[in-house]
């Protein structure tokens, strides 16, 4: 039996070049902002690059690069 809580990952957990599909958001207020930027459930995202200290990060979403803080990326839950 697997613990589904332990299986929950966010965009902040992705490694360089890794792809994932957006499932949901953990912060309702932040989700409105992210939806407006094209981070829709069912959309594939990949981690393009990270700043030297790991924050901010750059994602490939819907054909463009989206830069965001790691704390914001942690609210995007992926599969």
Fold and architecture overview:
This protein is α+β, with helices and mostly antiparallel strands. It has a single domain (4-78), classed as Ferrous iron transport protein A (FeoA) (SH3 type barrels, Roll). 22% of the residues lie in helices and 37% in strands. It is built from three helices and six strands, in the order H-E-E-H-E-E-E-H-E. The protein has helices at residues 4-7, 28-36, 70-73; strands at 9-10, 19-25, 44-50, 57-61, 64-68, 76-78. It has a six-stranded antiparallel beta sheet with strand order 1-6-2-3-4-5. The protein is globular, with a radius of gyration of 12 Å. The mean pLDDT is 89.
Topology:
Blueprint: H1 4-7, E1 9-10, E2 19-25, H2 28-36, E3 44-50, E4 57-61, E5 64-68, H3 70-73, E6 76-78
Antiparallel strand pairs: 1-6, 2-3, 2-6, 3-4, 4-5
CATH superfamily: Ferrous iron transport protein A (FeoA)
CATH architecture: Roll
CATH level 1 name:
Mainly Beta
The ordered H/E elements are HEEHEEEHE
Strand order of the largest sheet: 1-6-2-3-4-5
- Could you say which structural class the secondary elements and strand pairing correspond to? alpha+beta
Span between termini: 18 Å
Using the CA coordinates, give the radius of gyration: 12 Å
Mean of all residue-level pLDDT scores: 89
Organism: Larkinella terrae
InterPro entries: Fe-transptr_FeoA-like, FeoA, FeoA_core_dom, Transcriptional_repressor_C
Domain Ferrous iron transporter FeoA-like: 9-79
GO molecular function: transition metal ion binding
